[in-house]
Structures are given as C-alpha cells and as structure tokens.
Amino acid sequence: MTTTLKKPQRSARKPKGDGHMRRGEILLAAERIFLAEGYHGATIRKIADEVGVSSTALYMHFRDKDEILLEICDSAIAKLLRSNSEISARPIDAVAKVRLMLDAYITFALENPNAYQLVFCGQSGLVSEGKQQATEALGDSCYDVFVNTVRDIGATGRLRTGTVDSAAQSMWAACHGLVALLLTKPTFHWAPTQELRGVMLDGLLHGLVTD
Amino acid sequence: MTTTLKKPQRSARKPKGDGHMRRGEILLAAERIFLAEGYHGATIRKIADEVGVSSTALYMHFRDKDEILLEICDSAIAKLLRSNSEISARPIDAVAKVRLMLDAYITFALENPNAYQLVFCGQSGLVSEGKQQATEALGDSCYDVFVNTVRDIGATGRLRTGTVDSAAQSMWAACHGLVALLLTKPTFHWAPTQELRGVMLDGLLHGLVTD
DNA sequence: ACCGTCCACTAAACGGCAATCACCCAGCCC
DNA sequence: GGGCTGGGTGATTGCCGTTTAGTGGACGGT
Fold first, then answer.
1. Cα distance between residue B111 and residue B93, in whole Å
2. Cβ–Cβ contact B141 with A under 8 A
3. Does A198 touch chain B (CB under 8 A)?
4. Chain A (99-128) residues lying within 8 Å, Cβ to Cβ, of chain B
5. Cα–Cα dist B6/B9, whole Å
6. Mind listing the pLDDT tens digit for each residue in B37-90?
7. By CB neighbour count within 10 A (0-12 exposed, 13-18 middle, 19+ buried), where does B174 fall?
C-alpha cells in the first residue's frame, strides 16, 4: 500500500532528460520566450517553468543566463555568416555582392530582431568579462567576408572615397542604423520600409562606389 | 542639557533640502553615476547614497527610477535640439546645414553616450507604458528641424533619389548606426573616427544629393 | 542481492534590485 | 498648545540570478 500511495505522488518530478536532450529542450524554450519577451523578459524561472523543471536545473547545462542566450545568438549569427559566404561565392560583380550582402543583413535583422539586438546593440548587462567570444568571433567572420568583398571593389579602383576599411564600416554602420532604429522605434512615422531600404542602399553605393 | 545632548546626535539625519533644491541635488548625483556606470549601474541606492539620503527619499521627488533618468535625458536632448535649431537659423546653404547637423549629431552622441543610448537605442527595461513622452517629443522636434532642412534641399530639386522623408531618415539612420556601433563595440578595429565621420558624411551627401 | 558512486534534479536560501509600507518628527497655522 | 503637513526613515515585499546542500534513481562491481 505505501508504495502505491507514495510513488505516483513523486511523479511530479520530471523524469531525467535522456542524455543531452534536456539541453536542447532548454534552448528551444529559451528561444521562444526570448523572442516573445526580449532579453529582460526571458528570466531563468520562466524558461525553467516552460521546460517543466526547477530553475536550478538550468545550471546543470549552462553556466549562467548569458550562456543560454549567447548560444541562441550564435546559431542566429551563424545563419547570417552562411548567407554572406554563399553570396561571396557567387560568380557576380563585387558591387552586386555588396548590395546583396547589405540587403541580406537588413533582412536578417528584421527577421531575427532579438538575436540581432543582443549581438549588435550589445547593451550593457551581460558580457562583463571575456564572454561572448564565440559570438563576437562569428560576427567578426561576417564582417571579414563583407570587407573582403569591398576590398575587391577597392582593388579595381572603384572606391569613390575613403579606404577599404572606412568604406566597408560606413556601409555596415549605415545599414545597422537603419534596422536598429526600425527595431527600437517602431512607432516612428517611417517612410515605407522597402523604400527606405532602397534609398539607403542606392545612396550608399552611389556615394561610396564609382560606376 | 538634554537638548544639547540629543540634537547633535540626530544630525546624522540629513537636514531638509530647502524646498525644491533636493530635486536638483538628486539629478546631479544621478547624472554623475549614470554617466559613470551606465543605465543598470545607476541604482536607486547608489544615487541616494551619493546625495546622502535614504533610497526612499528619492521617491518623494520622482515617481520611479525611469523618471529620474528620463529627466536627465531630456536636458541632454534639449541641448541637441538647440544645436539643430541654431544651425537651422544660419544663413547658409541647406546642404551645408544638413552636413553640420549630422556632424553635430555625431558629436553629441559621442559626448553624451549614455543619454544618447538611452534615448536612441531605447532598449527594453523602461518605457513600459506611455512614459518617455516628453523625451520622445524632444527627439521628434530634433528630427522635425532636420527634415525641414532636407525639405529645403528637395524643394530645389537636388535630391538624387527617394522622397524627402526617406532621404532624411536614411541620413539620420546612417549616422545613428555609426555612433551606435562606435559606442557599443569600442573594441572593434575601427578605422580612425575622423575618417569614418568624413567618409560617412561625404558618402551620404554625394549619394543622396546632387550638386 | 547489496553497496558505493555518480548524475540529473530539487527546495531553500542568499544577496541585490525597485518599489511600497507604516511610521517619525520638525515647522507652520490656527 | 494642538493638529496638520511634508520630507525623511527602516522594515518589508516581490522579483531577479545564482549558490548550497541534499535527494532519489540508475548503474557497475562484488
């Protein structure tokens, strides 16, 4: 009697996550809440509740909260890197590549707003010390692929002004500014997004590259 | 005897801040800590300690933490608005005005990094409901002055591409992106800041405005 | 069958945060 | 003097991320 009485009650405890499966569960739940409620809204307790375990259990699989969110960002940025690399490999004009990369960058940011903001608007609150290394390395790789394409333009003498670095960084910064403002100020009376994208890209390329 | 014995001991308590002076003291201390330690580093307790009162005392003068920081931002943005208005009133070419405004915008952001980020990188954490109204109104005024100058350019048919709005917003966004990245990614291997500013402004004006 | 060891997990607690509560006391008006 | 008011306080609440001590089941050796 005692066994049949007590055992079912203890089943409130979630069974062990078969091997490393629990880690994936946590990442999935964290991404969902993170996308739905942003960085500060995604608390350890909410994520743990979603998975169905105690908040402490998350510390079995991740050192701290930042490690969870950084891992989510890593996979997002890896996607951007793949996109850039794929464009870089195409057999087309370097200027066309740059335009495609910047356009893909904008698309990526608008489709992955929270991951984008976490990586590229990197507000204080996390990082603290050398964390974010892997994520930053991925971001750097994205920039490297991009700057190399700009270098191809510079090599043919088609940079209207500035160095390869300053031109590449200006283009990147301009597109970053556009999506950052679109994401953080959604209530502003913006011109139609498509027109903004077009004007920004046309202006940048016409302003920095000679035909 | 009793009076001379007791009164000096109670002087541990800070005397009343004569009228509305305490409010100014708080704003001053808050700005100092806010600039030194950023948004999350500026806690109610630290500010109160700096002033020499209990944390509760701050709630006598401000509804909550956000109200303190927003008021600091207001004065910073008001400074930017004065700068823009002053440039707008000069008897010079509209294109030159736009360049001066964008350059002043960048200077302002780099000199008031925390206020700038709070207003223009408006990360979640505050706002929640209709707060930030006054601050946003000031920001809108800055934009209005700017967009009217761009409109002057458009009126003379010198906009190379896009509408007045999309051109003005692209220029603003591009400069925002530059300073936002400079502020949030200070460890990146940037080109020299002066060169970046020059390339960005030259590129934008050459890309969006015909001579 | 039994015991030790590990491992995924838990409840409880810690310290810090913003914000609220009940209260205190000096100065003022009547 | 007596009561009111307003700037001030310590204690408390309810979150947060994180830590600690411990629990229970699976597994391997004997």
1. 27
2. no
3. yes
4. 117, 120-125
5. 5
6. 888 889 999 999 999 999 999 999 999 998 898 888 889 999 999 999 999 999
7. buried
